[in-house]
Amino acid sequence: MKAIISGFPLREMLMGCLCCILICGIFSSVYAQEMPADSLKLIHLNEVVVISAGKQLDHQKQHKPLSSLDEFLESSRSINMVKRGAYAWEPTMNDMASERLAITIDGMQIFGACTDKMDPITSYVDVSNLSEAQIGSGQQGAAFGNAIGGGINLKLDKSSFKKTGWNGSLESSFETNNAMRVFGGELNYSDEKFYLNTDVIYHKAENYKAGGDREVLYSQFEKYNFSINSGYKLAEDKSISATLIYDEANDVGYPALTMDVSLARAVIGSVSFNQDTLLGNFTNWESKLYYNNIKHVMDDTKRPDVPIHMDMPGWSETAGFYTQANFNKERNHFFFKLDGFYNKSYAEMTMYPANSNEPLMFMLTWPDVRTRNVGIYAEDHIDFEKSSVKLSTRLAYHSNTVADDFGLNSLKIFYPEMDRTNTRFLKSFSAQYHKMVNDFHFNGGISYGERAPSVSEGYGFYLFNSFDNHDYIGDPDLQTESAADANVSVTYKKPTFEITAAANYFHVYNYIIGVVDNSLSSMTIGAEGVKIYTNLEYAQLFNATLSGRYNISNAFKLTGNISYHRGIDNEGENLPLISPISYRSALDFYKNQYSASLSVNGAGEQTNYNPAYGELKTAAYATLSASFGKRFFIRENSLFIKAGIENVLDTYYSSYTDWNNIPRMGRNFYLTISYSIN
Amino acid sequence: MKTLKYIFAILILSPSFISCSDDNEETPMEPNPVEGLNKIYEFPSADHIVEIYSDKSALEVGYNEISIRIKDLAADKYLINAAATWMPMMHMEMMTHSAPHSTLDNSAESSVYKGYIVFQMAGNASEYWDLTLNYTLNGEQITETHQISVTEPTDGLKKVQVFMGSDDSRYVLAYLNPKKPQVAVNDFQAVLYKMEDMMTFPVVENFKITVDPRMPGMGNHSSPNNEDLTYSAADQLYNGKLSLTMTGYWKINLKLLNENGEVLKGEDVTESNPESSLYFELEF
């Protein structure tokens, strides 16, 4: 797409770059000399999922080391993954999906290029790139962007000037169920002045089989990912770093959808400048400029009996920056962040009529929407004797512009009075309180947050949703969605024993969801009707979890959690994709480089579902998994082998997150081998 | 990037501009009144020539906007007070009939006589159209008849309907605009005539034509916010709105209602009835 590239606002980007460089230059030259760093990172998060702890191959504690990032995220207490197949699962948090979450990669805003949410941005990075996923529920995630449900930041793995010299590793795994082969390798160099991390990983999987050896057609995928990041110390307290990730998936099947994907490609790059101090009192000053470009091409040529063949490519380009620093004064630990991004989202659809003499049918499904967002985030964490308070706020300017006239005129069919540009001011405030009384920890907080409609919600044009079998049309005049939420948790903590009860409640105003408009006729052949994204007056979401850990002995550890979720709209109707009661429990063993685990995962019957949103009642299920691992030392190097069985009983099941209730994978054996050279 | 490209283009082109400007003696040109039109006929006589222009490359079945110029060869000038009138006529094997047409009007551009004709059918080997022109040249009344060729539209799309209404009257409905349809809400225009006899086609006033565009190649889906065609006395046309949500082949299903709201022709599109018997076709 020539138009989308040449239309990019080079001038604005250049201005941004210049400003950043200027600021960096001035501050670094004037204030470089003072104060060593206090390297306290003050983003307080609800949960951190460790993906690969600092290149040390510390995979023992993970049940399945070379699993997909999706599986890692799913292991989090607070995240559930919506599945349209074996690949590119969509994270949800507090029963809210992409458009209500702020998901960033190393602080970078990235937006999928697929109008049908087949490419959540978590699909454009891989476990080989990441060190951890930082998860903040509700407005605790506002540091990453405007959100209602929460924020997830996928932190890239970097050597960060540790004096480790050269090291590398090779990893491979195989899974029997879908014949998945994974090959990965990394090569790193790090000293006090310079580091370079490179890694590459390749996955290839065939169709998987659900319980009872039932093959799920179109669930294959192939993906590779390459990343390089490097840093250089300019001075003792100053460094620059750069990152480049290239990710490409081909031949990805989506059994729950009517079409597959022939290409999903992301190029993600950034340069950053870090300085230990700023203006004397600020610490950990970090500034980053980034750019990413995503291309996504859907493909229905492999499906038999498509009523009409169509091409649906999409593009998403984002450029952005952030600059952040900490500031500590007595009991106050401040964190400040200024960030901004500019995104272009463009998607088109070309349909090939059965009568080849007729002209092609063409429409813009995302009319080249330009999104600008500039925000400031500030938090103060105040420590008292046995308690602490965290106050945070995000204030952002957000605007959407329809750049393409064809697209604007298309939308004007529905909204004759619509403006090309829509601007909003988004606010977020949050207060969290933590108190310790003997072995009890009490946490409570209230917050308020706002978000702008997503590109699809605001400007989507006949986006087919196979879940409820409707075409969706955006509404550019949607109200800003906002939520007031309250959370409370109590933890009883002993060295060998810990139990936490937590609950949160979201009252979402102007809740955005598709509502059927019976006056409209569906475009997609076979669709039941057309839904328009509409603001409901309000919706309510409630989540509660009880989780515990018990260290039976030094070697054995028992963990478990059970959660309850409920979501209803203003008329008391069930919202879609709300989890039934779900639970998981695991018994882990770890001693003398041996590790083993036995885990159970299940959910109750989904009683609160809504057929109007295409939901079917999902039956209760439970699955059992086991793993065994051992690390061997071969001179300086180490060899780590882990094997496991998932869904031991070969249960045929699907969970509420499975799009169109496609069945999940049946019994699966996996074997992972990692060899690391120091 | 874009700016760079422009600068680059200007740099490359600038020498050629400079070199060109020397031999280009700026001669002020009169605006050509038939700019952009195709001359489809030229009928020469001893002392004058009749030129017939259209925006199409030939006269086609349906609505044709036609411009006529008459050149006085002696004066080497186009006539501006020829008081031109015209009459199209179809010579069928068993009968002859005319076609709905406007008067000729040169008020916008004095040397160009403009009007339109709605041809109901194409000529063939044994049946043909001719056009009789009356005008004055140097005070002399001239009548000329020229055979003309009227063909089916090259795209094969239905843009005119000749039909018997349920009131036993014969009507001619022809598509005017949009000439270049867009994915947008288009201004939709049509003309409606009643055939009183073989030669008389008065404009029908104050009827209504409902509009239901459908895409038969894509599940026969419709589009929202169309507006029915209603009569406007100012331009004697039926005006409405036509929403087209994508490019491709569209069938515009229509229903003709008289001033009492009675359906004279056409049916609703339903699951069991995919199209109306009264329709236009569009492709873009």
Automatic annotation (TrEMBL), chain A:
The answer, when asked if Membrane is one of the entry's keywords, is yes
What InterPro entries does the entry give?
A: Beta-barrel_TonB_sf
Q: What is its main location?
A: membrane
The protein's location, in the record's own words, is: Cell outer membrane
Membrane is among the record's keywords: yes
Per the UniProt record, the lineage of the source organism begins with: Bacteria, Pseudomonadati, Bacteroidota, Flavobacteriia, Flavobacteriales
By what name is this protein known?
A: TonB-dependent receptor
This protein's species is Aequorivita aurantiaca
| Domain of life per record | Bacteria
Q: Which UniProt keywords apply?
A: Cell outer membrane, Membrane, Receptor
UniProtKB/TrEMBL annotation, chain B:
Keyword annotations: Signal
Secretion signal span:
1-21
Keyword field contains Signal: yes
What protein am I looking at? Answer: YtkA-like domain-containing protein
Q: Which organism is it from?
A: Aequorivita aurantiaca
Give the source lineage, highest ranks first.
Bacteria, Pseudomonadati, Bacteroidota, Flavobacteriia, Flavobacteriales
